[in-house]
Design brief:
Layout (H helix, E strand, L loop, with lengths): L1 H17 L4 E4 L6 E5 L2 E10 L3 E3 L4 E4 L5 E7 L4 E6 L18 E6 L4 E2 L2 E10 L4 E12 L8 E11 L3 H32 L7
Antiparallel strand pairs: 1-3, 2-3, 3-10, 4-9, 4-11, 5-8, 5-11, 6-10, 7-8, 11-12
């Protein structure tokens, strides 16, 4: 079942990849997630620069909510600088989902201009888990043709990320949990009132 789920998940990732035009980080097969020792896993993203865009110095892309992040395990091609933060870094014209309890991974370009289309190489980070879920990425590159040539282009899309650990979900679970408790108490009060009025029998 897990193998079937992974196949469907990564097939969907390929379809998303084919529909976009920008800096695109992607994990398209389970073999892109490899053991890294100590029970951890290396998530190896292939990044692509598509036609009609360049990567200039300070252009970047961010993968959001990378659960189980292990500091110091990142690798990237020459000319790219890595950073990790709980909020951002986000291009100004897009609004991705960003859980403040999970790290975001950002790679920023620092070298001479790259002209699309081309492969940008492999960008890796370490997580405690190898189980994928659908997350988001955002990128900022530079248009190289047409009326918008030379302007910054912000993009957003879906990408595989590690499944969050329970601790990162506690704030949401807390909200849902309190709501469930409130509903249960309300239900019990209604049953007591109905039993007192004889609306339905209550077993001894």
């Amino acid at each position: 079942m897990r193998k079937l789920y992974s196949s469907v998940f990564f097939a969907a990732a390929i379809l998303v990849l084919a529909a976009r035009a920008d800096i695109i980080p992607s994990i398209t097969t389970a073999t892109d997630i490899t053991p890294a020792g100590g029970g951890n896993f290396s998530w190896n993203y292939s990044a692509t620069l598509t036609q009609d865009e360049n990567v200039l110095r300070h252009d970047f892309f961010t993968i959001y909510d990378f659960a189980g992040y292990v500091p110091g395990g990142n690798t990237q091609p020459a000319g790219w600088m890595f950073s990790a933060a709980l909020i951002g870094t986000t291009p100004g014209k897009v609004t991705p989902i960003d859980n403040p309890n999970l790290f975001n991974l950002t790679w920023t370009y620092t070298d001479s201009t790259l002209i699309g289309p081309q492969s940008l190489g492999i960008f890796s980070a370490i997580s405690h888990t190898n189980l994928p879920t659908s997350g988001e990425f955002a990128s900022e590159a530079t248009k190289n043709s047409g009326d918008l040539a030379g302007t910054k282009i912000d993009n957003i899309g879906n990408v595989a990320v590690p499944v969050p650990e329970m601790s990162a979900l506690l704030p949401m679970i807390g909200v849902v949990g309190f709501g469930a408790v409130g509903l249960a108490l309300s239900y019990l009060r209604q049953r007591r009132e109905q039993s007192r009025s004889g609306a339905f029998p209550v077993a001894d």
